[in-house]
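From the pipeline queue, job 12 of 40. The input is one protein chain; the requested action is below.

Action: predict structure.
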Amino acid sequence: MPIPKNAAAERMDPRVRRTRALLREAALQLAAERDVELLTIADIAARATVNRATVYQHYRDRDALLLDAMEEEIGRLAHAAARCPLTRPADRTPVELTDLFGHVEANATLYRRMLGPGGAARFINRLRELLAREVAGQLGSDDADGPEESGPARELHAHYVAGAFVGVFTAWVSMPVRPSAAEAAQEVWRVLRGAPAAGPAET
């Protein structure tokens, strides 16, 4: 299992850090090129120009390697979600929500591979976990509108919203012709805040 990115990781042998960086880079490159389920340890080893035994010295399996490779990206997305004021009124879409969709759009190929039918379950679960954590923090903040929620209610609410985001991101990046980040954020904001969905334009 990969060592967490903390003080222990900083004391890691520089050669180990370099090897893991090569493996993570190779995994991300391949994940953007083909379905994740089609990737093998041998593929990643070949792209990283190491042998299979070297990969297993650092990661117990392919999914552990992929999750480590995506951890930084997941963290960036969760950080963007943390800046998004999900508890504000529904009258105007927060620019932070548009920025969140913009981040996913900028990495659409990678997210389409990782969230699609051939994606990695561990990645999806980790993404949902971190998003729920950030949403729960907002629901419990002093800026949250509406009645204060208890621990279990807040947790369920946070996972509901996080699951909705993962579902929306999955569908959005897979659309042959998808709405812009601003359009997607606007519609999602309407739904999150309980506003009626936008109907067809009148002629």
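Job complete. The chain has ten helices and no strands.
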